[in-house]
Specification:
Length: about 80
Amino acid sequence: MVTPMRVVIAVCLIAPFVAMLWVGSYAKTDPAFIGIPFFYWYQMAWVLISTVLTMIAYKLWQRDQRARSAAKGGASQ
């Protein structure tokens, strides 16, 4: 069943793939950040962003599973 929570989870997990597969958007050297070309620091930034998005997706998934368990338990009693 598709719920708004699951849509948010999917977006959190898909966003890094889209960002990395769209190479044309970051295949350039400017703007440089502390001497590092954009191409490299953009990808490194996405490593951190992906970590945060994965943690958010995991926490939301746990919350969704707890809600479903509570709904099932309450319905069967």
